[in-house]
Design goal:
single chain, alpha/beta, Rossmann fold, 3 domains, 7-stranded parallel sheet
Protein backbone atom coordinates (compact mmCIF):
# COMPACT_ATOMS: atom_id res chain seq x y z
CA UNK A 1 0.00 0.00 0.00
CA UNK A 2 1.36 3.42 -0.94
CA UNK A 3 1.39 6.29 1.52
CA UNK A 4 -1.35 8.01 -0.50
CA UNK A 5 -3.54 4.91 -0.24
CA UNK A 6 -2.87 4.74 3.48
CA UNK A 7 -3.88 8.38 3.89
CA UNK A 8 -7.10 7.78 1.96
CA UNK A 9 -7.84 4.79 4.23
CA UNK A 10 -7.46 6.99 7.30
CA UNK A 11 -4.23 5.40 8.45
CA UNK A 12 -2.75 7.84 10.98
CA UNK A 13 0.78 6.44 10.67
CA UNK A 14 0.72 6.85 6.88
CA UNK A 15 -0.56 10.41 7.30
CA UNK A 16 2.19 11.30 9.76
CA UNK A 17 4.86 9.62 7.62
CA UNK A 18 3.82 11.48 4.48
CA UNK A 19 3.86 14.85 6.26
CA UNK A 20 7.37 14.05 7.53
CA UNK A 21 8.41 13.21 3.97
CA UNK A 22 6.98 16.55 2.80
CA UNK A 23 9.04 18.38 5.41
CA UNK A 24 12.30 16.54 4.85
CA UNK A 25 12.27 15.29 1.23
CA UNK A 26 9.58 17.21 -0.66
CA UNK A 27 10.67 15.85 -4.04
CA UNK A 28 10.04 12.26 -2.89
CA UNK A 29 6.58 13.25 -1.64
CA UNK A 30 5.40 14.66 -4.98
CA UNK A 31 4.05 11.38 -6.45
CA UNK A 32 1.96 10.80 -3.33
CA UNK A 33 0.64 14.37 -3.38
CA UNK A 34 -0.29 14.03 -7.05
CA UNK A 35 -2.33 10.93 -6.20
CA UNK A 36 -4.12 12.73 -3.35
CA UNK A 37 -5.00 15.94 -5.17
CA UNK A 38 -8.34 14.72 -6.63
CA UNK A 39 -9.56 13.96 -3.12
CA UNK A 40 -8.96 17.44 -1.69
CA UNK A 41 -11.15 20.52 -1.36
CA UNK A 42 -13.65 19.18 1.16
CA UNK A 43 -12.23 20.40 4.48
CA UNK A 44 -12.94 23.75 6.11
CA UNK A 45 -9.58 25.42 6.73
CA UNK A 46 -9.47 27.86 9.65
CA UNK A 47 -6.40 30.00 10.28
CA UNK A 48 -5.64 31.19 13.79
CA UNK A 49 -3.17 34.07 13.79
CA UNK A 50 -2.08 37.11 15.79
CA UNK A 51 0.75 38.46 17.86
CA UNK A 52 2.79 36.26 20.22
CA UNK A 53 1.21 35.74 23.62
CA UNK A 54 -2.45 36.14 22.69
CA UNK A 55 -3.28 32.51 23.50
CA UNK A 56 -3.54 31.06 19.97
CA UNK A 57 -2.86 27.49 21.11
CA UNK A 58 -5.48 27.66 23.84
CA UNK A 59 -8.03 29.13 21.42
CA UNK A 60 -7.24 26.40 18.89
CA UNK A 61 -7.62 23.75 21.58
CA UNK A 62 -11.00 25.09 22.70
CA UNK A 63 -12.32 25.51 19.16
CA UNK A 64 -11.20 22.03 18.16
CA UNK A 65 -13.13 20.58 21.10
CA UNK A 66 -16.23 22.47 19.94
CA UNK A 67 -15.91 20.98 16.46
CA UNK A 68 -15.41 17.52 17.95
CA UNK A 69 -18.64 17.84 19.95
CA UNK A 70 -20.39 18.48 16.63
CA UNK A 71 -18.97 15.22 15.28
CA UNK A 72 -16.27 16.71 13.03
CA UNK A 73 -12.87 15.10 12.60
CA UNK A 74 -10.24 17.76 13.23
CA UNK A 75 -6.71 18.25 11.97
CA UNK A 76 -4.38 20.80 13.58
CA UNK A 77 -1.18 22.15 12.08
CA UNK A 78 0.72 24.34 14.52
CA UNK A 79 3.70 26.29 13.19
CA UNK A 80 6.40 27.23 15.69
CA UNK A 81 9.43 29.48 15.21
CA UNK A 82 12.89 27.99 14.79
CA UNK A 83 15.90 28.94 16.84
CA UNK A 84 18.21 31.19 14.79
CA UNK A 85 21.16 29.45 16.49
CA UNK A 86 20.38 25.72 16.58
CA UNK A 87 17.69 25.66 13.89
CA UNK A 88 15.48 23.64 16.23
CA UNK A 89 11.88 24.43 17.12
CA UNK A 90 10.22 24.18 20.52
CA UNK A 91 7.07 22.54 19.08
CA UNK A 92 5.26 23.08 22.36
CA UNK A 93 1.73 22.96 20.99
CA UNK A 94 1.32 19.25 21.74
CA UNK A 95 2.03 20.05 25.38
CA UNK A 96 -0.73 22.68 25.39
CA UNK A 97 -3.19 20.31 23.67
CA UNK A 98 -2.68 17.17 25.73
CA UNK A 99 -6.40 16.37 25.93
CA UNK A 100 -6.78 16.48 22.16
CA UNK A 101 -3.63 14.44 21.56
CA UNK A 102 -5.38 11.30 22.86
CA UNK A 103 -8.55 11.85 20.80
CA UNK A 104 -8.59 9.46 17.78
CA UNK A 105 -10.68 12.01 15.88
CA UNK A 106 -7.94 14.65 16.12
CA UNK A 107 -4.60 14.78 14.31
CA UNK A 108 -2.07 17.29 15.65
CA UNK A 109 1.13 18.15 13.81
CA UNK A 110 3.66 20.74 14.95
CA UNK A 111 6.24 21.99 12.47
CA UNK A 112 9.04 24.53 12.58
CA UNK A 113 8.83 27.56 10.30
CA UNK A 114 12.39 26.77 9.05
CA UNK A 115 13.21 30.35 8.19
CA UNK A 116 9.95 31.18 6.40
CA UNK A 117 8.81 34.70 7.28
CA UNK A 118 5.10 34.65 6.46
CA UNK A 119 3.92 32.94 9.65
CA UNK A 120 3.79 29.47 8.07
CA UNK A 121 6.24 26.70 7.17
CA UNK A 122 7.08 25.76 3.58
CA UNK A 123 5.43 22.36 4.14
CA UNK A 124 2.17 23.78 5.54
CA UNK A 125 0.17 23.84 2.29
CA UNK A 126 0.96 20.25 1.40
CA UNK A 127 0.35 19.08 4.97
CA UNK A 128 -3.13 20.62 4.68
CA UNK A 129 -3.61 18.75 1.41
CA UNK A 130 -2.77 15.47 3.15
CA UNK A 131 -5.19 16.05 6.04
CA UNK A 132 -7.89 17.16 3.62
CA UNK A 133 -7.51 13.96 1.57
CA UNK A 134 -7.46 11.93 4.79
CA UNK A 135 -11.03 13.03 5.46
CA UNK A 136 -10.64 15.58 8.24
CA UNK A 137 -13.65 17.90 8.20
CA UNK A 138 -11.94 20.93 9.73
CA UNK A 139 -8.26 21.82 9.64
CA UNK A 140 -6.90 24.47 11.99
CA UNK A 141 -3.67 26.20 11.05
CA UNK A 142 -2.07 28.04 13.95
CA UNK A 143 0.61 30.41 12.71
CA UNK A 144 3.82 31.61 14.28
CA UNK A 145 3.17 34.80 16.27
CA UNK A 146 2.91 37.43 13.55
CA UNK A 147 3.32 41.18 13.29
CA UNK A 148 1.98 43.60 10.71
CA UNK A 149 3.07 41.96 7.47
CA UNK A 150 3.27 38.17 7.94
CA UNK A 151 -0.01 37.37 6.23
CA UNK A 152 0.60 34.13 4.29
CA UNK A 153 -2.33 32.59 6.15
CA UNK A 154 -4.78 34.56 3.96
CA UNK A 155 -3.59 32.51 0.98
CA UNK A 156 -4.09 29.30 2.94
CA UNK A 157 -7.26 29.44 5.04
CA UNK A 158 -10.93 29.75 4.14
CA UNK A 159 -11.57 31.66 7.35
CA UNK A 160 -8.88 33.72 9.09
CA UNK A 161 -9.34 34.38 12.80
CA UNK A 162 -7.13 37.22 14.02
CA UNK A 163 -6.55 37.25 17.77
CA UNK A 164 -5.80 40.29 19.92
CA UNK A 165 -5.39 40.89 23.62
CA UNK A 166 -5.95 44.14 25.51
CA UNK A 167 -3.19 45.84 27.41
CA UNK A 168 -0.31 45.31 24.97
CA UNK A 169 0.71 48.95 24.81
CA UNK A 170 -0.67 50.63 21.71
CA UNK A 171 -3.21 47.97 20.79
CA UNK A 172 -4.07 49.48 17.42
CA UNK A 173 -0.42 49.22 16.36
CA UNK A 174 -0.86 45.45 16.46
CA UNK A 175 -3.65 45.44 13.88
CA UNK A 176 -2.48 47.92 11.28
CA UNK A 177 -2.12 47.33 7.56
CA UNK A 178 -2.27 43.71 6.38
CA UNK A 179 -3.32 42.16 9.68
CA UNK A 180 -6.48 44.31 9.76
CA UNK A 181 -7.34 43.47 6.16
CA UNK A 182 -6.94 39.69 6.35
CA UNK A 183 -9.31 39.08 9.27
CA UNK A 184 -12.64 37.36 8.67
CA UNK A 185 -13.28 37.14 12.41
CA UNK A 186 -11.63 39.10 15.20
CA UNK A 187 -11.31 37.59 18.65
CA UNK A 188 -10.22 39.57 21.68
CA UNK A 189 -8.84 36.96 24.04
CA UNK A 190 -8.20 37.49 27.76
CA UNK A 191 -11.27 39.72 27.64
CA UNK A 192 -11.40 39.92 31.44
CA UNK A 193 -8.62 42.51 31.29
CA UNK A 194 -9.65 46.12 31.98
CA UNK A 195 -8.94 47.53 28.50
CA UNK A 196 -10.98 44.96 26.56
CA UNK A 197 -14.00 47.22 25.98
CA UNK A 198 -11.80 50.07 24.73
CA UNK A 199 -10.10 47.72 22.27
CA UNK A 200 -13.49 46.62 20.93
CA UNK A 201 -14.51 50.25 20.31
CA UNK A 202 -11.21 51.11 18.61
CA UNK A 203 -11.48 48.05 16.40
CA UNK A 204 -15.07 48.89 15.43
CA UNK A 205 -13.94 52.38 14.43
CA UNK A 206 -11.12 50.98 12.30
CA UNK A 207 -13.43 48.53 10.57
CA UNK A 208 -15.80 51.39 9.75
CA UNK A 209 -13.09 53.12 7.73
CA UNK A 210 -11.50 50.04 6.14
CA UNK A 211 -12.33 48.17 2.96
CA UNK A 212 -14.50 45.83 5.04
CA UNK A 213 -17.10 48.62 5.38
CA UNK A 214 -18.12 48.21 1.73
CA UNK A 215 -17.65 44.46 1.54
CA UNK A 216 -20.28 41.77 1.81
CA UNK A 217 -18.80 40.49 5.05
CA UNK A 218 -17.82 42.69 7.98
CA UNK A 219 -15.71 40.74 10.48
CA UNK A 220 -17.50 40.19 13.79
CA UNK A 221 -15.59 40.96 16.98
CA UNK A 222 -15.85 38.24 19.59
CA UNK A 223 -14.50 38.28 23.13
CA UNK A 224 -13.16 35.18 24.83
CA UNK A 225 -11.37 33.97 27.90
CA UNK A 226 -9.89 30.88 26.29
CA UNK A 227 -8.38 29.56 29.52
CA UNK A 228 -11.90 29.01 30.90
CA UNK A 229 -13.74 28.52 27.61
CA UNK A 230 -15.85 31.64 28.04
CA UNK A 231 -17.00 33.09 24.72
CA UNK A 232 -15.67 30.21 22.62
CA UNK A 233 -19.20 29.18 21.67
CA UNK A 234 -19.86 32.61 20.17
CA UNK A 235 -16.54 32.45 18.33
CA UNK A 236 -17.52 29.08 16.88
CA UNK A 237 -20.84 30.59 15.73
CA UNK A 238 -18.99 33.47 14.03
CA UNK A 239 -16.76 31.00 12.15
CA UNK A 240 -19.85 29.03 11.07
CA UNK A 241 -21.46 32.27 9.89
CA UNK A 242 -18.45 33.08 7.73
CA UNK A 243 -18.44 29.57 6.27
CA UNK A 244 -22.09 30.00 5.27
CA UNK A 245 -21.28 33.39 3.75
CA UNK A 246 -18.44 31.90 1.69
CA UNK A 247 -20.76 29.26 0.23
CA UNK A 248 -23.70 31.57 -0.36
CA UNK A 249 -21.73 34.40 -1.98
CA UNK A 250 -19.45 32.34 -4.21
CA UNK A 251 -16.45 33.77 -2.35
CA UNK A 252 -15.21 30.30 -1.40
CA UNK A 253 -14.54 29.36 -5.03
CA UNK A 254 -12.85 32.73 -5.66
CA UNK A 255 -10.59 32.30 -2.62
CA UNK A 256 -9.61 28.80 -3.57
CA UNK A 257 -8.88 29.87 -7.12
CA UNK A 258 -6.52 32.56 -5.75
CA UNK A 259 -4.95 29.96 -3.48
CA UNK A 260 -4.26 27.55 -6.33
CA UNK A 261 -2.84 30.37 -8.43
CA UNK A 262 -0.46 31.39 -5.63
CA UNK A 263 0.50 27.77 -5.02
CA UNK A 264 1.15 27.15 -8.72
CA UNK A 265 3.41 30.19 -8.84
CA UNK A 266 5.31 28.93 -5.79
CA UNK A 267 5.77 25.44 -7.26
CA UNK A 268 7.01 26.84 -10.58
CA UNK A 269 9.46 29.13 -8.78
CA UNK A 270 10.74 26.24 -6.65
CA UNK A 271 11.31 24.01 -9.67
CA UNK A 272 13.12 26.76 -11.59
CA UNK A 273 15.25 27.59 -8.56
CA UNK A 274 16.18 23.93 -8.16
CA UNK A 275 17.11 23.56 -11.85
CA UNK A 276 19.07 26.81 -11.81
CA UNK A 277 21.28 25.86 -8.88
CA UNK A 278 21.75 22.32 -10.14
CA UNK A 279 23.04 23.79 -13.40
CA UNK A 280 25.25 26.44 -11.79
CA UNK A 281 27.02 24.43 -9.11
CA UNK A 282 29.23 26.42 -6.69
CA UNK A 283 32.61 27.00 -8.29
CA UNK A 284 33.39 27.41 -11.95
CA UNK A 285 31.48 30.06 -13.86
CA UNK A 286 29.32 31.05 -10.89
CA UNK A 287 32.40 31.99 -8.88
CA UNK A 288 33.84 33.85 -11.87
CA UNK A 289 30.72 36.00 -12.09
CA UNK A 290 30.89 36.75 -8.36
CA UNK A 291 34.52 37.82 -8.78
CA UNK A 292 33.53 40.08 -11.68
CA UNK A 293 30.91 41.68 -9.45
CA UNK A 294 33.49 42.32 -6.76
CA UNK A 295 35.85 43.94 -9.27
CA UNK A 296 32.93 46.03 -10.68
CA UNK A 297 33.52 44.52 -14.12
CA UNK A 298 29.86 43.59 -14.34
CA UNK A 299 26.68 44.77 -12.63
CA UNK A 300 24.22 42.40 -10.83
CA UNK A 301 21.55 42.79 -13.52
CA UNK A 302 23.87 41.85 -16.39
CA UNK A 303 25.27 39.01 -14.27
CA UNK A 304 21.80 37.60 -13.65
CA UNK A 305 20.96 37.87 -17.34
CA UNK A 306 24.17 36.02 -18.18
CA UNK A 307 23.41 33.21 -15.72
CA UNK A 308 19.81 32.88 -16.90
CA UNK A 309 20.72 32.83 -20.60
CA UNK A 310 21.06 29.00 -20.84
CA UNK A 311 17.48 28.63 -19.60
CA UNK A 312 15.94 31.37 -21.71
CA UNK A 313 17.65 30.75 -25.07
CA UNK A 314 15.82 27.92 -26.80
CA UNK A 315 18.74 27.44 -29.21
CA UNK A 316 20.91 26.13 -26.37
CA UNK A 317 18.41 23.45 -25.42
CA UNK A 318 18.43 24.81 -21.86
Amino acid sequence: MSLAEGVRDGNVRATAKLISLIENSPGEAEPELRALHPYTGNAQIVGITGSPGIGKSTLTDRLAKRFRKEGSRVGIIAVDPNSPFSGGALLGDRVRMQDLATDPGVFIRSMGARGMLGGLARATHNAIRVLDAAGYDAIFVETVGVGQSEVDIVRTADTVVVGLVPGMGDDIQTIKAGILEIADVFVINKADRPDAHRLVIELQMLLGTSSHAEAGWVPPIEQTIASTGEGVGALRTAIAGHWEYLHGSGELEARRRNRYEAELQSVVEDHWRKRFFEYWQPGGHWEQVVEQLLRKEIDPFSAAQQLLAPFLDSNTGG
